Sequence to fold (199 residues):
Amino acid sequence: MRLSHIGLGVLLYAVLALGAIPASAGDLTADDRAALKEMRAGHMAKLVFHREARPAITESFRDKYGNEVTLQDYQGKVVLLNFWATWCPPCRAEMPGIDRLAGHFADDENIEVLTLSTDRFDVKRIEAFFDEIDVQNLRVLQDRRGAVARKGGVLGLPVTILLDREGREVARLQGEAEWDAPEAKAILKRLAEMTATQS
Fold:
């Protein structure tokens, strides 16, 4: 039996539709992204929102005790993930603000603030730096093999990415920023509200 051009088109469309990946309930719409972009001010002007969410990073990293951790452990939350190193002056400069941001959202079940060290040194150097600046709200996390940074396309430091509730990157800021500024807090809060249907 030969298919007409119309019949072949319908069949092809049906096959493609069956193979399509459905959008998640909490995907950002074009209007959502536009609204978030309007909120950028000060250091947040450097924050770039992607047209589409990037795939979740599944590579693992370690906590200070050597336990394996993945970003999937934080699924269901909006995550601010900061890549840094102890040898990076801009990273060190912005860390107190990130610690204060983590403290601000400490009781918020929808938002998590993480800093992931790319140092290949012993974890004690990270702990010493955190003690030096009196970090109160951040966990010591280390990407010693650089697997997470490579998968995330991190080419310089510091880099901070915002992840939606499914662990997909929706925005990125390259360089140092004042992460405890009011506009940063407002953007994170709004992103959590916009993606709340994923929880």
Residues 156 and 174 are 8 Å apart (CA to CA). Confidence is low (pLDDT under 50) at residues 3-23. The helical segments are 5-19, 30-38, 89-104, 123-132, 147-151, 182-194. The longest strand covers residues 48-54.
